[in-house]
Amino acid sequence: MSAESVILIGPEGSGKSTIGRIIGANLAKELYSIDRHRDELYAPYGYDKAFAEKIYEEQGLWPFYQHWKIFEYQAVSHILQNASKESDEFYGKIIDFGAGHSVYENPEELEKIEGLMRPYQNVILVMPCEDVEEAIKITEARRNHKLALNKHFLEHPSNKRLAKYTIYTKDKTAEECAESVLQIIRENAQQTSRLN
């Protein structure tokens, strides 16, 4: 099986983390969730969590999200520049991008991330379904609360530009979805093996 990193992108509540855990167990790969390591990943770029929280309290969700974008771009750029190197901490991992780390408001940043992601074979967009309104209902039912930014994440063109493959999770078990991802990884590994 390929040692290459696997990148999972998609909106909140789409199933990335659950699928990532299953394929991680199957492939003996570590699941790394960028959202869970946000503070440490952003720290080298001057991120101040207390200042970010103050923005949220005083200005609301959208300015808070915009503030995060500055650091998301820098952290993801760093990961993508290094995750293909065997000596790097991200090499060979399943990387769950969370909902925001694959969405870029700045077209130039999106273009640069697209270029950095191009060498990675296994970039998989996980979506409940194609229909945005239905996808919102599904993800909010899964999370049991309103997801204020999910409509934006679902409608934004970033994910479809970055993804090499898309899997839909509606009416499928997590195991069935994970098997779809594993099949993609196997086929890419076989193709790489034939080329080498």
TrEMBL record:
- Read off the InterPro entries from this record: P-loop_NTPase
Full protein name = Shikimate kinase
The scientific name of the source species is Trichoderma asperellum (strain ATCC 204424 / CBS 433.97 / NBRC 101777)
